[in-house]
From TrEMBL:
Entry annotated with the keyword Hydrolase: yes
Domain Glycoside hydrolase family residue range list: 93-539
Gene3D superfamilies, per the entry: 1.50.10.10, Immunoglobulins
GO molecular function per UniProt: cellulase activity
EC assignment: 3.2.1.4
Protein name: Endoglucanase
Alphabetical list of PROSITE patterns matching this protein: GH9_3
Gene Ontology BP annotations: cellulose catabolic process
PANTHER family listed in its UniProt record: ENDO-1,4-BETA-GLUCANASE (PTHR22298)
Active-site residues annotated for this sequence: D518, E527
Occurrences of domain Cellulase Ig-like (ranges): 3-83
Record key words, sorted: Carbohydrate metabolism, Cellulose degradation, Glycosidase, Hydrolase, Polysaccharide degradation
Catalytic activity annotation: Endohydrolysis of (1->4)-beta-D-glucosidic linkages in cellulose, lichenin and cereal beta-D-glucans
């Protein structure tokens, strides 16, 4: 067996350019780089790397970084195998960033998706009844208007903690990456004087605000169908009644964190909205502090995922950090400095996700200007985290900045790879050291095809790409009249847990990278979610900025 795995989208002229050769050979082999006409433009020899634990393959590395001439249709040839074609160019990642962000409009609830704005994806408004939703058992005896927001994933539920980390990451990109204030996303609101990324994020922010139960200030954890619906089910055809689930401390602090963050970012464009966001953030933080801790129950799995989390110290730290960065007030600085998480290493096997938000606080504290005491230590901790991920990546034959304990790949591993790359990118922002920049670019190669499956995990990008992600309405695999997921949609990626029947039937016994199947029924390896597309957009924005 032989194969050359490359970034199927391509490489920046001045960036790293490496590929992984799968081969039985243990000695170095010759390789050739051919341009689009078949002319050999570079040659060299491979670097044997031995057996890659994450795939079980014997592999070599091909480094063709000295070739910087732009073009399309390049291929690498080694050991009788030829790679998929790829490009070398400075403008490869702007379109990926835009498409990864355009994905969110297609996820909107409560509004028609216009065919003229998203050809092939137009549909009637879904769940207009979310304007008047009752509380489910144990959630209260009232009704709320919780219209709008983004459908979370392949189902039609709306979850505050997943919406929260997604909003944070998109706003973090807006605040710290260049060019996103001018990006056009073809939205109904385009041209209203507000950057399109902020227009899109506001659709979710407004929903999060509606989930705040007045007068307590606590926030409902989620809302979704009473029972699971089957595939395919378009949102406007969903027959199930909808319910609010109980409030939780995690959801309350998610709203506090992202509303505080949003208040400082939207103030330039809409001061009244910024005031409303900050008031909600303060109210939520006080409610979380003064009410007993409430956890989302792990058994609440009917009609929607549980998103359970029994440790909210990180959410308290995150909310305090965002409130401090927006207000500069001493009470929030004190809460940041008193947090048990403030001085510990928060950069584990993966940096952050919806249930682990301490690193989100740390990254914003490191990058957003403030008068926080000990800021140098905060920044040093981010750089130390980046060094950890960079060392993992450099030791990995596929250059993956992710090495889960026991080689047990996590649910949504692709997002974890990308979130670790965000830490590298922030370290580059803080230091200007090219090794962090190059680590981000090479890490993106894995997502776009330099992996054991020779598959781009982003729909529409590369020669061979995932296109049957688990979804109730991007369900072409089940109904040819329905579309595949939109171009720029990230698949969840290898998951050693194999929680669904398709994965169990087809992947049992597989190792690491091979625990993935591009099948709509494999919800544990192949779902799409808002919080997985957010880091794809963030990293693509970084790469586009470099190009």
């Amino acid at each position: 067996m032989s194969g050359v795995a490359i970034n199927q989208v391509g490489y920046l002229p001045s960036g790293p350019k490496r590929a992984t050769l799968v081969t039985d050979a243990t000695e170095a082999l010759p390789w050739q780089l051919a341009d689009g006409t078949g002319r050999v433009v570079a040659t060299g020899t491979t670097e044997p790397r031995g057996t890659d634990v994450s795939s079980g393959q014997n592999v070599h590395t091909i480094d063709f970084g000295t070739h910087q001439q732009a073009g399309t249709g390049f291929t690498l040839i080694a050991d009788g195998a030829t790679s998929r074609p790829f490009a070398i160019g400075a403008d490869l990642y702007g379109p990926l960033c835009a498409d990864a962000l355009k994905f969110f409009y297609c996820q909107r609830s409560g509004i028609e998706i216009r065919e003229d704005l998203r050809p092939g994806y137009g549909r009637p408004a879904g769940h207009l009844g979310d304007r008047d939703v009752p509380c489910g058992a144990g959630a209260g005896d009232y009704r709320l208007d919780v219209r709008g927001g983004w459908y979370d994933a392949g189902d039609q539920g709306k979850y505050v903690v997943n919406g929260g980390i997604t909003v944070w990451q998109l706003l973090h990109a807006f605040e710290h990456r260049r060019g996103l204030d001018e990006l056009t996303l073809d939205l109904p609101e385009s041209g209203n004087g507000v950057p399109d990324l902020l227009n899109e994020v506001r659709w979710e922010l407004d929903f999060l605000l509606r989930m705040q139960a007045v007068p307590s200030g606590l926030v409902h954890h989620k809302m979704h169908d009473r029972e699971w619906t089957g595939l395919p089910t378009l949102p406007h055809l969903d027959p199930q009644p909808r319910e609010l689930r109980p409030v939780s401390t995690a959801a309350t602090l998610n709203l506090s964190a992202v509303a505080a963050q949003a208040a400082r970012i939207y103030r330039k464009y809409d001061a009244d909205y910024a005031d409303r966001l900050l008031a909600a953030a303060r109210t939520a933080y006080t409610a979380a502090e003064t009410n007993p801790i409430r956890y989302a129950p792990v058994e609440d799995t009917v009609g929607g995922g549980p998103y359970n989390d029994d440790d909210v110290r990180d959410e308290f730290y995150w909310a305090a950090a965002e409130l401090f960065l927006t207000t500069g007030e001493q009470q929030y600085a004190d809460a940041v400095l008193a947090s048990p998480l403030h001085t510990v290493d928060v950069f584990g096997p993966y940096a952050f996700d919806w249930a682990a938000t301490a690193a989100a606080a740390r990254l914003d504290l490191a990058l957003t200007p403030s008068e926080l005491p000990g800021l140098a230590g905060v920044r040093a901790s981010v750089i130390a985290g980046a060094d950890k991920y960079l060392a993992i990546q450099q030791a990995h034959p596929y250059a993956v900045a992710y090495a889960p304990p026991g080689n047990r790949w996590d649910w949504g591993s692709n997002s974890m790879v990308l979130n670790n790359l965000v830490v590298l990118a922030v370290a580059y922002d803080l230091t200007g050291e090219t090794r962090y920049r190059d680590g981000v670019l090479e890490g993106l190669d894995y997502i776009l095809g330099r992996n054991a499956l020779n598959l781009s995990y982003v729909t529409g990008y590369g020669t061979d790409y995932a296109k049957n992600q688990h979804s109730r309405w991007y369900a072409h695999q089940l109904d040819p009249t329905l579309p595949h997921p939109p171009k720029g949609t990230l698949a969840g990626g290898p998951n050693s847990g194999l929680q669904d029947e398709v994965a169990q039937a087809r992947l049992t016994g597989q190792v690491g990278q091979f625990c993935y199947v591009d099948d709509i029924h494999s919800w544990s390896t192949n779902e799409l979610t808002i919080n997985w597309n957010a880091p794809l957009a963030w990293i693509a924005a970084f790469a586009a900025e470099l190009g």
